[in-house]
Give the backbone structure.
Amino acid sequence: MSLKNNRVLIIGGTSGIGLGVATAVAERGAIPIVASRRQSSVDRAVAQLPEGASGATVDLTDEGSLDRLARTVGDIDHLVFTAGESLELASLADLTPARITGFFQTRFVGALSAVRTFAPRIAEFGSITLTSGTAAWQPGFGALPVSVCGAMNALTTALAVELAPIRVNAIAPGVVRTPLWDAMADADRHAMYGQAAQVLPLGRIGEVDDVALAYVYCMEQAFGTGVVLKVDGGTVLV
């Protein structure tokens, strides 16, 4: 299935994996539309993308903001959701209700709200690609990442049934060099990257381009739905 001239909305598309997806679909002739919370981020991302790309702001905690985005964007062929705050690797003792709710707000509630808003605007036989993570299979990451990734996996299968024939899949990255780890101190982050590279079967951590291709695959293929595709360098094997 060709992406040429397809309109692809990437929520969370102004940095990291989302911007990588926008770049990859543009290279295949699609029209990327990137959305995130800050206008400055949108402007910076659009400036890096080929002519024809566009962007808009959206506040995923505000239902009215999603509705305004839908009116601005119009009909689309594919929805990609990569939005998420920096990862929280907190112990159970540090998980206040506010912290738990805040972590789920963007990654789960925001994703489900975006799907609810845009599903009626997706072309027949189009697709939705969500973002999970290998934390779903690795309890050592702590309660928040494990819980939200597990919830995204279950949501993917439920939506694939409810929204058919629109295809709904999710990508589960492993450790990837993106801004999502920026909450960690520089030394801790680089140490974590190094440790992961030593144990992974492929001998390195993931890069944005590695993972972006998986989202492209989920848009281009025509017969897979309800799939959670791991792109993790063998993370769950070790």
In short: The helical segments are 16-27, 39-48, 63-73, 97-118, 143-162, 186-199, 208-220.
